[in-house]
User: Which sequence fits this backbone?
């Protein structure tokens, strides 16, 4: 192949990629507000190239970039360990030997986990011909560095970068190959980076199913896909318009002095169908086939396309062989339609209940593999003309002739989405924080109440016991309640220990690390001696075995000449200290709290991902705290099924729930009312002097549908689009709603893919009924096993925040998701068009671009997410 066009990793001409809203996809300076970026898309769309550009950006600015590739056989910690080890010399040169020492120790600890060390001593009594010798040996293996994880690497690299005012990029390619454990680690790292606010960015790349797998990885223990995936700024690399791809061919040809016919380039672009990788192959082949005198002609382009298709036949056969029966059926039908495409709603509606899900799943998998291409959510075509011809030849079927509708479909596909670009002129994140405050410290805090009208926040109502559990669907603010509790502790000078549950390691490990990180706080508040004893308790909790041996010898004879030795050795391991469980640690904390006369709070977030063993530990801890009666409080937060799982865990191995879970003061976090949402929106706008139409406010409140995180994201888009003079108008509000729905498509697809057949059936029915909703399956479904399958499906959808239960009826929680489902299944004419207002963009003066922190739930520039937990 010629080098006219460079290489895939170093192209001769770089195409500037933009998303459907006209925003640059590649990373640039300044870096985005979001600390976690995910590039996704079908094969060949340039995801790895985006990581190349990110590394080049880091090199240009002198930043640190650590790049690894995920593997199915090797944990990410191992990959990062090797990558950092290989880069230690550069890190020393950049930050100094002393500063890098802690990072080097972390790397060493990770690579030397199973290295036992023993000390020994002996006493010899006697001299001459008879000696008695007593021996003792014992383990001195240091406690395992619990939780030496991706988070620890990020923290230490962040400390180094902050000391020099630099940035760190952690680049992870091919996350499709990563294990569920590694994907859970990436989720946790994304959340951790946002919480810590260090100058570290996670940049990952994966296929079209990467978002679905990340979302599924967050539910390994509970079966509930949490919205932790929404921490990622998702940047989807899709097919490109011909006018964007054309310079990638013509500019290098002109630089190389190779003649070409414009019609020939058109032919290559049509064959590439928006795929930059396929276009490169076609263009390279055309150069090889070109006549030196005439250059690339129409005949040359046709010959090159035929050659590439012929050479790809073996790959087409392999892809076909990997298809399921449902996928082969769908490919055959789409290929038979030729350029006209196939109407998917027509296919699924004909299939009927219980059968359409297999067709829809086949569609989603084929799109993710890059074999099918979607158009407007309703029609699909074969992505490659070569594959279309191969399937038709393989099945001996003749494709349909192009129809006017098919020609229009091809024309709009090549023109791109046709959405007007957005060019924000202010710093949206800073503006939103300026107007509305942060997610953790809003300008207008809402007093949340339960069904009896009582406040649910701990700063408004004291608990009835020593254990509190906040539950609710994603985005309702369960984590925010822990924020408020943390603020309460800070105001009163109390000690609060906060951590997230994890599917990757036991809860004890997380507690040990959290307390260790707060050890300076314990020294200040309780004294050096108390902190030293607490440190010892943590060590006993971490070190589970300490082997020891005693021995005795008798030696008779002349030393150095002849001796008879008799010896005996026996185990003398001390009592295993891991009896030191969370209960013992709670006793130690309780003693400190009682002596000080102030409470200590242990807060555990994200209980949905906790293992059953961890939940057993929490129920035991809850019972123990109540028995001891000391001022140590357990405060947890989780989804709507947290109570159900705690009940199951309370029975231990028997699996029969006990009364233990009743010790929790369970406080459900309900959706906000329209009145509460309206106040949370209008009061900050009034204080900031930003005009707003009542109808615009009504539209935004209706689109938020009780979800405070979604309202904040909608408000951020509205502020971005609003004219300073006219403020937030109805047109601005509608444009903000459409933008959010468009950016959320990837998350809708991921959530949909992770639904069971019964859940899809129920979600589809609820979408059709719109705001009227469905009655609960337990009430409406006919008797029989299927009734309870649907009931379980409904509970699962409610727990994931996809459906909402109100007045005994089920509705789709997110209006954008409702429109997406309706469009996908053809139940209405809902489409995701975006009509931007014609008002000028706001010219706003903002402060510093980022303050190093970003609370979950607040909007970000170029974010592909909807709501947070």
Assistant:
């Amino acid at each position: 192949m010629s080098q006219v066009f460079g290489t895939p990793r170093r192209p001769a001409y770089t195409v500037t990629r933009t998303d459907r809203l006209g925003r640059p996809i590649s990373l640039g300076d300044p870096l985005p507000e979001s600390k976690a970026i995910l590039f996704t898309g079908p094969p060949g769309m340039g995801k790895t190239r985006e990581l190349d550009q990110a590394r080049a950006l880091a090199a240009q600015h002198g930043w640190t970039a650590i790049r690894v590739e995920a593997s199915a056989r090797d944990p990410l910690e191992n990959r990062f360990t090797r990558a950092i080890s290989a880069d230690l010399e550069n890190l020393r040169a950049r930050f100094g030997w002393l500063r890098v020492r802690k990072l080097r120790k972390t790397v060493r600890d990770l690579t030397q986990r199973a290295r036992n060390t023993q000390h020994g001593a002996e006493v010899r009594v006697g001299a001459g011909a008879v000696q008695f010798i007593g021996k003792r040996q014992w383990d001195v293996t240091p406690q395992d560095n619990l939780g030496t994880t991706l988070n620890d690497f990020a923290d230490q690299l962040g400390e180094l970068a902050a000391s020099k005012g630099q940035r760190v990029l952690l680049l992870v390619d091919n996350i499709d190959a990563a294990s569920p454990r590694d994907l859970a680690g990436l989720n946790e790292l994304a959340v951790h980076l946002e919480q810590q606010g260090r100058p570290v960015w996670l940049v990952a790349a994966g296929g079209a199913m990467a978002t679905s797998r990340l979302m599924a990885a967050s539910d390994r223990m509970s079966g509930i896909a949490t919205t932790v995936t929404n921490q990622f700024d998702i940047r989807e690399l899709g097919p490109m318009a011909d006018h964007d791809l054309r310079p990638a061919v013509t500019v290098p040809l002109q630089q190389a002095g190779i003649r070409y016919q414009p019609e020939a380039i058109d032919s290559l672009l049509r064959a590439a169908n928006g795929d930059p990788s396929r276009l490169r192959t076609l263009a390279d082949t055309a150069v090889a086939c070109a006549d030196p005198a005439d250059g690339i002609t129409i005949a040359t382009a046709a010959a090159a396309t035929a050659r590439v298709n012929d050479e790809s036949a073996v790959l087409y056969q392999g892809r076909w062989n990997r298809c399921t029966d449902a996928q082969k059926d769908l490919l055959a039908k789409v290929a038979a339609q030729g350029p006209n495409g196939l109407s998917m709603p027509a296919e699924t509606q004909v299939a009927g209940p219980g059968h359409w899900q297999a067709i829809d799943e086949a569609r989603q998998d084929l799109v993710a593999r890059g074999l099918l291409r979607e158009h407007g959510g309703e029609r699909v075509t074969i992505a490659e003309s070569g594959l279309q011809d191969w399937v038709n030849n393989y099945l001996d079927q003749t494709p349909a002739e192009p129809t006017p509708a098919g020609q229009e479909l091809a024309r709009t596909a090549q023109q791109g989405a046709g959405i007007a670009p957005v060019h924000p002129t202010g710093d949206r994140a800073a503006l939103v924080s300026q107007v509305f405050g942060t997610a953790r410290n809003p300008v207008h805090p809402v007093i949340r109440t339960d069904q009896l009208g009582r406040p649910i926040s701990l700063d408004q109502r004291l608990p009835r016991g020593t254990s509190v559990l906040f539950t609710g669907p994603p985005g309702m603010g369960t984590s925010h309640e822990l924020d408020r509790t943390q603020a309460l502790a800070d105001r009163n000078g109390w000690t609060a220990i906060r951590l997230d549950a994890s599917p990757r390691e036991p809860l004890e490990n997380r507690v040990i690390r959290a307390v260790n990180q707060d050890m300076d706080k314990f020294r200040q508040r309780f004294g050096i001696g108390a902190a030293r004893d607490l440190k010892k308790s943590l060590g006993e909790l971490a070190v589970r075995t300490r082997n020891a041996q005693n021995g005795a010898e008798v030696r008779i004879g002349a030393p150095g000449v002849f001796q008879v030795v008799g010896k005996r050795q026996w185990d003398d391991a001390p009592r295993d200290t891991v009896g030191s469980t969370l209960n013992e640690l709670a006793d130690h904390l309780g003693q400190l709290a009682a002596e000080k006369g102030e409470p200590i709070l242990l807060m555990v977030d994200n209980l949905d991902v906790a293992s059953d063993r961890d939940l057993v530990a929490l129920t035991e801890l809850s019972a123990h705290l109540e028995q001891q009666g000391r001022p140590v409080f357990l405060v947890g937060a989780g989804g709507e099924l947290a109570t159900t799982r705690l009940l199951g865990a309370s029975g231990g191995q028997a699996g029969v729930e006990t009364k233990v879970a009743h010790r929790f003061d369970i406080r459900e976090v309900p959706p906000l009312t329209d009145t509460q949402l309206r106040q949370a929106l209008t009061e900050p706008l009034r204080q900031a002097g930003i005009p707003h139409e009542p109808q615009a406010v009504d539209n935004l409140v209706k689109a938020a549908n009780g979800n405070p995180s979604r309202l904040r994201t909608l408000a951020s888009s509205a502020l971005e689009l609003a004219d300073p003079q006219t403020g937030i108008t109805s047109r601005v509000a509608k444009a903000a709603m459409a933008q959010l729905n468009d950016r959320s498509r990837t998350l809708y697809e991921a959530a949909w893919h992770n639904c069971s057949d019964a859940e899809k059936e129920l979600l589809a029915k609820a979408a059709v009924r719109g705001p009227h909703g469905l009655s609960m399956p337990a009430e409406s479904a006919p008797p029989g096993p299927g009734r309870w399958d649907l009931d379980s499906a409904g509970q699962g959808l409610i727990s994931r925040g996809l459906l909402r239960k109100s007045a005994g009826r089920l509705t789709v929680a997110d209006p954008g998701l409702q429109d997406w489902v309706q469009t996908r299944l053809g139940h209405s004419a809902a489409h995701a068009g975006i009509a931007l207002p014609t008002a000028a963009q706001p010219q706003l003066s903002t402060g510093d671009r980022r303050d190093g922190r970003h609370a979950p739930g607040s909007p970000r520039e170029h974010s592909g997410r909807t709501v947070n937990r």
About this structure: Residues 180-196 form the longest helix (17 residues). Residues 774 and 810 are 5 Å apart (CA to CA).
